[in-house]
């Protein structure tokens, strides 16, 4: 097997890895659920390469992400659900359909700013997907029997269109934004701050009680409220937290470098020593900002 620029070679490699008799033992053990975390991780790696402005890493990480698409398509084909070609056909159809001002006839191209056109197309696609679910023998990746839930009379719920697999901070932001669009929102920051104080107290009570489940629940409530405050101030919480993490990593690296300069390691240092270097890193940052 030799490398190639042709996507078909990657598909062949993936099929070979999943070949029952001669494939890779690790790959043969995987399913949609076990691979999903790697898919999310690779998407983050792509975003990280872009953030670091690293074209070499971006090329590699895009390849890793593409492999995830091929992997899931291979798993689906083995179960008779769909193949890679179906994935390609589906996305090309969607892109053409969603851009009538580019790919449509003269009338469509002249109406590129037609109000509601984008939402109308998405609604049509959603109806088509629902029709496919109703006509298919199964839509479950696990192969388990579908549970019939008929909500056609009630129609879709307002928050149904928000993908549940998004990172939690981003998911919270999107859910809150969509709820706010129909008036479920505070118009001042004071109630949000009061809610955060309330959640902190409830979290402290859960911790004091030694209730692990309640502690997790209250921690989630607190984070959700903080996202609400971020949204009110037009701050992307995912971006803000990633910025904080970058700062922490840099300052922690400053501590490590400072210790290394004296021939010591992190494990050799006391907390007080590391804290002193942390304060020095903060002073350095303030000096750079000035």
Automatic annotation (TrEMBL):
Chain spans, region Disordered: 133-156
Entry keywords, A to Z: Hydrolase
Domain called NTP pyrophosphohydrolase MazG-like: residue spans: 30-103, 190-251
Single GO molecular function: nucleoside triphosphate diphosphatase activity
InterPro entries (UniProt xref): MazG-like_dom, NTP-PPase_MazG-like_C, NTP-PPase_MazG-like_N, NTP_PyrPHydrolase_MazG
Enzyme class: hydrolase
EC assignment: 3.6.1.9
Descriptive protein name: Nucleoside triphosphate pyrophosphohydrolase
Origin species: Jiella mangrovi
UniProt gene name: mazG
